[in-house]
């Protein structure tokens, strides 16, 4: 279905009466079923969010009781840090230091804890391997992993971002398990889980995107893994004084170059047609280096992070790597 | 047997990353193995980056305070 048609069919409020509203409600239900089948949750556990990052607050704060302890890692998203920071009893906060491969040790959990598991780190691709935890409530940050990594069995709440399956931005999916002890942390008068309503056209477009993304991923995962290895091997062999983050998810890669100003590197690469992001301080609005790189003991200066898309080709990568090598050499002078 | 008062100092206060690490590398490049220098830097990236630099280049760094670091040259790069 093309986007103009989606807008045409999904303008009515699915909650209202009438034929148009009824067909909009059917679209919404079909979308829920689609997401449920790919994300392996029940369709009545699915909720849509117009602001994906609001899902951290809803998903985590909704699980916190007055005496529960929040356990998370030092490579979690800043949204999680902000929730911890807002808790008045600091004895109920436990920040775990990850190993240099990004592994958090959740072995000392108690039953009353609320644990935050980041399946995949969006900056470095680090994958958390210990996910079946011994506590009552688990929030799963699946915003970077999308459909690539399945939920741990005893999840309570989980958050995805539509962009992780190349869907439209500005749409998050928050699943609240029927078994979870969850209470809406926002002011509310009824049983709703999200303030809503999220944009139905975006929901429908994202459902189409996840269908085609999952189908493509089956054929393209191998290529993406090979591209990741190719980039790693080229950088190790040809660009001295580079610090590659450990290999995690195949579609993400982070590397830092000694003696290089990241802002200049990102700008120079953008001028040559390559869009990359950076975790270096000079590229951050708060002028702080990435807390993820620092937590992993990785170099924070001269950092770039790459996302390998389905459409990325080996030819693109070859051109990119030659450009990267010469640009790093130029900037080092 | 030296203490930090007698060591060379490299003042990079107010300089942003990656300048402190670049100036440090330049400073020690002409020195002998075992050379020590105190680097002063208040850039928030310096603490993690000096540790990473030491790991990558085979040198040593001791964090003395939030903005001072004792560097020992252990390798020729």
UniProtKB/TrEMBL annotation, chain A:
Which Gene3D superfamilies does the record cross-reference, listed alphabetically?
Aspartate Aminotransferase, domain 1, Type I PLP-dependent aspartate aminotransferase-like (Major domain)
- Chain ranges passing through the membrane: none
Q: Which cofactor does it need?
A: pyridoxal 5'-phosphate
**One Pfam annotation, family name?**
Aminotran_5
Q: Please state every residue range assigned to the domain named Aminotransferase class V.
A: 247-319
List, alphabetically, the InterPro entries matched. Aminotrans_V_dom (IPR000192), PyrdxlP-dep_Trfase (IPR015424), PyrdxlP-dep_Trfase_major (IPR015421), PyrdxlP-dep_Trfase_small (IPR015422)
Q: Which family does it belong to?
A: Belongs to the class-V pyridoxal-phosphate-dependent aminotransferase family. NifS/IscS subfamily.
Q: Provide the protein name.
A: Unannotated protein
Its organism's taxonomic lineage begins at:
unclassified sequences, metagenomes, ecological metagenomes
From TrEMBL, chain B:
- A Pfam family that this protein carries is TusA
According to UniProt, the name of this protein is Unannotated protein
Domain UPF0033 spans what residues? 10-34
The family database entries (SUPFAM superfamilies) matched by this protein are listed as: SirA-like
């Amino acid at each position: 279905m093309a986007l103009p048609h989606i807008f045409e069919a999904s303008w009515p409020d699915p909650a209202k009466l009438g034929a148009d509203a009824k067909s909009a409600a059917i679209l919404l239900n079909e979308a829920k079923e689609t997401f449920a089948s790919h994300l392996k949750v029940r369709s009545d556990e699915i909720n849509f969010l117009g602001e994906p990052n609001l899902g951290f607050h809803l998903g985590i704060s909704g699980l916190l009781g007055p005496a529960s302890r929040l356990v998370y890692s030092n490579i979690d998203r800043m949204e999680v840090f902000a929730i911890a920071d807002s808790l008045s009893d600091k004895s109920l906060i436990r920040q775990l230091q990850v190993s240099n491969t990004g592994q958090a040790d959740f072995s000392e959990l108690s039953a009353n804890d609320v644990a935050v598991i980041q399946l995949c780190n969006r900056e470095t691709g680090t994958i958390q391997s210990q996910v079946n935890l011994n506590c009552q409530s688990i929030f799963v940050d699946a915003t970077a992993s999308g459909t690539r990594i399945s939920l741990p069995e005893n999840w309570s709440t989980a958050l995805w971002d539509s962009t992780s399956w190349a869907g439209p931005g500005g749409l998050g999916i928050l699943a609240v398990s029927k078994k979870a002890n969850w209470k809406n942390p926002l002011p509310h008068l009824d049983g709703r889980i999200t303030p809503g309503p999220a944009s139905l056209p975006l929901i429908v477009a994202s459902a189409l995107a996840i269908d085609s993304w999952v189908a493509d991923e089956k054929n393209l995962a191998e290529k993406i893994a090979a591209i990741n290895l190719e980039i790693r091997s080229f950088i190790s062999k040809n660009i001295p004084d580079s610090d590659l983050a450990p290999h995690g998810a195949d579609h993400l890669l982070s590397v830092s170059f000694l003696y290089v100003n990241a802002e200049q590197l990102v700008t120079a690469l953008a001028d040559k047609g390559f869009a990359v992001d950076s975790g270096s301080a000079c590229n951050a609005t708060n002028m702080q280096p990435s807390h993820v790189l620092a937590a992993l003991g990785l170099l924070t200066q001269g950092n770039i992070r790459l996302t390998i898309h389905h459409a990325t080709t080996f030819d693109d990568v070859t051109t990119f790597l030659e450009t990267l090598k010469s640009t790093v050499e130029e900037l080092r002078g | 047997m030296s203490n930090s008062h007698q060591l060379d100092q490299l003042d990079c206060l107010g300089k942003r990353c990656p300048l402190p690490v670049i100036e440090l590398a330049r400073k020690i490049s002409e020195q002998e193995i075992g050379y020590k220098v105190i680097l002063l830097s208040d850039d928030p990236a310096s603490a993690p980056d000096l540790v990473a630099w030491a790991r990558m280049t085979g040198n040593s760094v001791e964090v003395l305070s939030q903005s001072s670091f004792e560097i020992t040259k252990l390798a020729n790069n």
